[in-house]
């Protein structure tokens, strides 16, 4: 199958994970190291642990974001973020 350049594939979990990380870890100042490399590693590790939700448009993205207003799904992401913070803080790459 060939995809035209006008269609793009987007993982709607990226802004959800990034937003939760920002709200729960960056803004609170509880990270041992808040350098960009550590922050990116935490987000990337978390993204590899949560199921991806791909979409090709804004309607799909809005639907997925609405799903993740569910407290249990938010809790699942926060749990993975917490694990990622622990892993990266134990072995930072810098």
* Strand order in the largest sheet: 1-2
How many domain units?
1
Question: What proportion strand?
Answer: under 5%
Poorly predicted regions: none
Q: Helical proportion? A: 55-70%
Q: Number of helical segments? A: 4
Apparent shape:
globular
Distance between the termini: 41 Å
Major sheet size, sense and barrel closure: 2 strands, antiparallel
Mean pLDDT: 90
Q: Which assembly state applies to the chains in this document?
A: single chain
Structural class: mainly alpha
Radius of gyration: 15 Å
* Number of E strands: 2
The run of helices and strands is: EHHEHH
Protein name: Late competence development ComFB family protein
InterPro entries: ComFB
Describe the structure.
Pfam families: ComFB. InterPro entries: ComFB. It comes from Cohnella boryungensis. This is Late competence development ComFB family protein. 62% of the residues lie in helices and 4% in strands. By secondary structure, the chain is mainly α. The chain has one domain. A two-stranded antiparallel ribbon has the order 1-2. α1 (13-26) packs across α2. The chain is globular and about 40 Å long. The termini are far apart.
Properties at a glance:
Late competence development ComFB family protein, 4 helices, mainly alpha, two-stranded antiparallel ribbon, ComFB, about 90 residues, about 5% strand, 2 strands
């Amino acid at each position: 199958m060939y995809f035209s350049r006008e269609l793009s594939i987007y993982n709607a979990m990226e802004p959800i994970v990034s937003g939760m990380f920002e709200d729960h870890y960056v803004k609170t100042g509880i990270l041992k190291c808040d350098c960009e490399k550590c922050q990116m590693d935490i987000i990337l590790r978390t993204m590899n642990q949560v199921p991806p939700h791909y979409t090709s448009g804004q309607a799909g993205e809005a639907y997925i974001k609405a799903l993740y207003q569910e407290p249990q799904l938010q809790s699942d992401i926060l749990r993975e973020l917490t694990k990622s913070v622990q892993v990266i803080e134990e072995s930072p790459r810098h």
